[in-house]
Amino acid sequence: MNDYSSLIENIKQRIAQGDKSPLYVKVAETVKQAIEQKMLVGGDFLPTERELSDLLGVSRITVRKALDVLDKDGVIVRSRGCGTMISETMEYSLKEAKGFSQQVVLKGKKPDTLWIKKDIIPCSEEIASHLKIAVDESVFLLKRIRYIDDQPVSVEESYVPANLIRDVDDIQMSLYDYFRSQNIIPTRTQSRVSAQLPTDEFLEHLGLKSSVPVLVIKQAAFDTRGKPIEYSVNYCRGDMYVFVAED
Amino acid sequence: MNDYSSLIENIKQRIAQGDKSPLYVKVAETVKQAIEQKMLVGGDFLPTERELSDLLGVSRITVRKALDVLDKDGVIVRSRGCGTMISETMEYSLKEAKGFSQQVVLKGKKPDTLWIKKDIIPCSEEIASHLKIAVDESVFLLKRIRYIDDQPVSVEESYVPANLIRDVDDIQMSLYDYFRSQNIIPTRTQSRVSAQLPTDEFLEHLGLKSSVPVLVIKQAAFDTRGKPIEYSVNYCRGDMYVFVAED
C-alpha cells in the first residue's frame, strides 16, 4: 500500500471523536483497526514519523508515542534505514499474554488449529519431573498444528496431568480457555528457548523442504498455588516467530 | 565419571557439618562444588534418585529437592530415560541473573572475553528507537566474542549512549559491573529471541564450518527511572545456549 489516504482519513476521524483517550492511543488504535480490516497487511510500510506528523497535523512526539505502542504490541517493526513495517512475525510470550488467534487476526490473517493427538499416555521421567508427578502416571498428550492463512507455522505438544481434564473434547482452540472454564487459573510460567535445525518430522508436518531454523519453546505453567498444570514443547518456524520476555 | 565414591563422601561430610542449612541445600551445594573442582564435568551423569538416596542415607524427597535446585540453577538436565546429566548448556537469562563467567566456572570450565570493538558511532534509526535518543546521536558500539575453554561460543554487540561511558577502557569482562561502578543500575530488561541460520561473519568469528543454528537475543536494558541504558544483539551457538525466562 503506497496510498495512505484512507488510513490518514480514518485516523483523522478517530482523532475528531470527542472522547478523552490520549491522541497517541487514538492513532495506535486506528492503525490496528486498519490491519484488522486488511487496509494494511504484514509487510506494508507506514509513512515516516515526519510524514505522519504532517499528514495528521499532530506533533512528532505524539506520532512517536503511537509507534512506541505499536512496537511494544508487536504490530510494527522499525528497521534500519527502511522505516516502519507492519510486522509479519508472530510473537510467543510468557503466559500466552498475546494469544495466537488474536495476534493472527491483528495481522489481517486467518488463524487455524488442527489437533492431531489427544491421547492418554504414561508419563516419561522428563515430563514427570516437570509436572512433579510420578513416572508412568497418566497424562494427556495434546498435539496440534497451527496455521496462518492455511500455511502451517508451528507444532505444539502439551502434557497435562490426566486428572485436570474431564472431557478432552471440550478443548477447542485454546487449552488455557478450557483450564479457566474449569477454574484452573494459569498464573506463572517458566520457559526455555532454543534454536535447532528442523527434524524430518517437523519439516513433514509443516510441508517444508528447505532448512528453516526452528525456535523451540519449552514452557511449564503453574496454577495459583504453584502446582504444575502443563508442560509444553513448541516447535515454531524460526523465520516467523520471535519469543518475547520482559522483567 | 562412574565412580561416585568421592562425590558421595564429600556430600556426607557436608551433611555431617552442624550448621542449620536444610539437607537438600547441602546436597545441592556439594554437587556444585564438585563441578567447580572438576570432580564432575558437563556431560557426566549423576546416580539415580534412588541410588543417591541409598548412598547418602537421606530420603528420596530430600534428593528430589536437591535436584530441583540444581535443575532450576541450570546445573543439571533431566532427560527422558537417561537420568540426570551435568548440563553443558549455557543459560542466557533476563537481567544477567546468571553472569557468563560464573556459569562457565560452574561447569568446571574456563571463561574468556575478547573485545573486538569499542567504537563511537552515529546511531542508526533502529538503535535510536530502542535507546530513545535521536538518530545520529553518538553511541558506543561494544563488540565482543565470548569463549569457553578457548572455544568461541557467542558474539555480542552492545549499543550504549555515549554519555553513559566516561572511559571505555574501564570496561572489563562485564559491562554491567562497569554500569554499577558508575551508579547506573540495570533494573529492567526486554528481550526478543529468535532462531536464525548463521551468517558467514558469525561462522568466521566462531571458527565454525558446519551450519549450527544461531540463537539471536535482542535485549534492551533500562535503569531505575526506566531510561534505556543498553541495547544489545547477541548471536549464540544454538547447540550450546538456551534462553530462560520466568514470570
Task: Summarize the helices and strands and which ones pair or pack.
The structure is a homodimer of 247-residue chains.
Chain A: H1 5-16, H2 23-36, H3 49-56, H4 60-72, E1 76-79, E2 83-86, E3 90-93, H5 100-105, E4 111-122, H6 125-131, E5 138-148, E6 151-161, H7 175-181, E7 188-196, H8 200-206, E8 214-222, E9 228-237, E10 241-246
Parallel strand pairs in A: 3-10
Antiparallel strand pairs in A: 1-2, 4-5, 5-6, 6-9, 7-8, 8-9
Helix pairs in contact in A: 1-2, 2-4, 3-4
Describe the structure.
Two copies of one chain form a homodimer. Chain A is α+β, with helices and mostly antiparallel strands. Chain A contains eight helices and ten strands. Chain A has a six-stranded antiparallel β-sheet. In chain A, helix 2 packs across helix 4 and helix 3 (49-56) packs across helix 4 (60-72). Chain A is elongated. The first copy, chain A, starts with a helix and ends with a strand. The relative contact order of chain A is 0.12. The mean pLDDT of chain A is 87. Chain A binds chain B through residues 67, 71, 78-81, 83, 94-95, 124-127, 129, 188-197, 211-216, 238, 241-247, and chain B through 67, 71, 78-81, 83, 94-95, 124-126, 129, 188-197, 211-216, 238, 241-247. Strand 10 (241-246) of chain A pairs antiparallel with strand 7 of chain B.
* Biggest sheet descriptor of chain A: 6 strands, antiparallel
CATH topology of the largest domain in chain A: Chorismate lyase
Biggest sheet, spatial arrangement of strands of chain A: 4-5-6-9-8-7
Total number of beta strands of chain A: 10
Assess the beta-strand content of chain A as a share of residues. 25-35%
